[in-house]
Amino acid sequence: MKIPSASPSITKKEISIVKRAIAKGWGTKMDYYLKLFSKKFSKYIGVKYCLPVAHCTDAIHLALLALNIKKGDEVIVPDLSWVASAAPIRYVGAKPIFVDIDPGTLCIDPEKILKKISKKTKAVISVDLFGNVAENDKIRKICKRNNIYFIEDAAESLGARYKKKMAGSFGDVSLFSFNATKIIMAGQGGCLCTNNKKIYEKAKLFSHHGIDKKLTGKYYWSSLLGYNYNWTNIQAACVIAQLERIDQLIKYKNKIYNLYKEYFSKIDNVEITKKIKNQKQTFWIVYAIIKKKINKEKFCNQFKKYNIDMRPMFYQISTMPAFKNKKMSSSNKIAKIISQNSVCLPNGYDLNEKKIKKISQIFNSILNAKKA
Ligand SMILES: Cc1ncc(COP(=O)(O)O)c(C=O)c1O
Fold first, then answer.
1. Is any atom of ligand 1 closer than 6 Å to the C-beta of 177?
2. Position 372 pLDDT exceeds 60
3. Which CATH number fits domain 246-367: 1.10.10.10, 3.90.1150.10, 3.30.70.20, 3.40.190.10?
């Protein structure tokens, strides 16, 4: 019985719509499911525009391009996230300024953003991590007051709410991912959401080699240096089916969380994801913060012989070769501790009580093994 770190939930619903898309979604119907997805997804989030793209990383890149962020500019981003939250800042030649996280949400700390704003700051990327939401109301105010853009990377927190508002409805632009690990998925995929028509149109232009026949009246005319970030009809069809099941899927994630909570409450030296005030978390990934000094890679490797794919916490982005900044990494103390001492528990939709019991027992024996 192998326990993967993540696995999706695929039913007859996804299979039948994907079959229809692959059989009929061509020619005059080549963007039928893409358009339907945009309509349904923007309604779900409560935004006016939704641009489907091949990956969330592309959507972050497009957001920066649409906001005209370039060389010489600075963009504030949390030091603890998947590398894709920061890499597009470098794609456009701007400088990422890594900011520490809040120990309660593991998302960027609004108080610490204030200290890092300079004349060069053009935007803040707030990442809603692991099914939690950042204090995006405060961040929004900070951005407004300082006349900078607010980009919300909600890749990991689709369906979560903060003060009753959807994750991904706070930013001037927000981004989502549908890669195979996410709450709803299509193997790969993503989208950019906004209420601003200009941002949407600009992002759309960049996403398709700068070609827009409606705008220029010409086929194949590239009016700016763009990219091919188009998504496919087939993947959009898959996500439409998943979106119809999202309440049920989030409910299952909550069930997994409650089981982890029950079994991990009996284990010493560890604390798993906590419920956060004013939030309706999705518990996309349940993380475990270990109260002992560990080497997270070695710790996770020990689960291999039990057929469990335990994953370490993200690294501080500011410690990685493409972003290395010793001053920033050593001043982001919370990100450093959480990164070193935490792991992500398996989070697939294939989990059940038997598997969670097994994971917790093995976790306890590895963490609290008594030396002879
Ligand atoms: C916080 C965050 N941002 C961005 C991304 C990038 O998403 P994608 O894999 O769709 O490019 C991910 C993906 O895992 C993510 O977790």
1. yes
2. no
3. 3.90.1150.10
